[in-house]
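note to self — DONT lose this again. spent like an hour looking for the file last time. sequence + predicted structure for the chain T wanted, 79 res
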Amino acid sequence: MNDGIRLSKGMTHKNALAGLNWGGGKGVMAHNPEVDRNDPKFREFVFKEYGNFVATLRGCYYTAEDVGCTHHDMYNIFT
């Protein structure tokens, strides 16, 4: 959680320095080491659920690909 807060502060500063009228944010997913995060069905489920959550924010947060995500993960978020 602390990493997510630290990263979102960094994104806020980055956007401010760039003159953007957007705040900063960071989506963070905790990893359970007992679950195979490379299982395609698991990844599809998790990223679709994350996309459903982001949609409830009604445009207050936009997500984009970052470390550990694939284009396929992003597709599942946006479906």
